[in-house]
């Protein structure tokens, strides 16, 4: 009886702690909302409305919290964002960005340079460890995975894995979106092929990726043409290797003419992730924190997914049944996304250097 009563007591204590924590989080969010509203504004940079559905994201935030957003240079690149922070260290005016959305490599560098303010959102534990800074300086927001875009007017059997691309079905069909000596998405396609071949680290991944494309080229399946929308539609490059969000958007824009099917490979699923951060010199630090809470909430994550950018909490939300079926129906099967690998910067840099150096010598095909 004592044991039973002890267990009841322990359960009651746990429930009380959970209730107390929930109340504290609610109070904390109320305080943050009030502080952000008092600041009255958020300044963003490099967020074009047609990229990852940022237009809806911005309008959703404004509608929910009544805070205006000052949008700087929507077409800026990651480097431009970093320079804007550096140039406005002592400036509290409208040209100083509060928040950043940059490529993965810029996060650690910005932290090292003291440009980021650490902050951990309430859903922090659902962000994969290999896609965030342990101190909260930067954290993955959304990602794409390398996928196969297939013009099914030309190709009747859609490849399901990298090894399938070597089959006779794909003679003169497979193309990269860019030159692997310079284009990141083409480089990461080789990275995915190397992972699928069992490679473990950057240099080995590059070597196996180069070997795969050498075989693909020698077999006559590789087409050295930049796989943009026009050659895909014309049938010149009917199997295109590109980020899934690019291919899915292309599929929608084609409206079935021709039909484009997008498949995520069953192995070697490589993810390219972008990261968020708050400027260490943010004029509106509370609005910046509230923006992060919105981005990483279920609402914000699903807004990105509507734009085919996979939110960083996708796996956790999928397992919890939080993703509407109509959104899932527009995507390749979720189980392949769950295999996504987020390469470390060291592995990415090692692979990029080896691929850029080895492409001409090993594969010898000039992509035009």
UniProtKB/TrEMBL annotation:
Keywords: Signal. GO terms for cellular component: outer membrane-bounded periplasmic space. SUPFAM superfamilies: Periplasmic binding protein-like II. One of its GO terms (biological process) is thiamine transport. The keyword Isomerase does not apply. Pfam families: SBP_bac_6. Residues 1-22 form the signal peptide. GO terms for molecular function: thiamine binding; thiamine pyrophosphate binding. The keyword Membrane does not apply. This is Putative spermidine/putrescine transport system substrate-binding protein. The lineage of its organism: Bacteria, Pseudomonadati, Pseudomonadota, Alphaproteobacteria, Hyphomicrobiales.
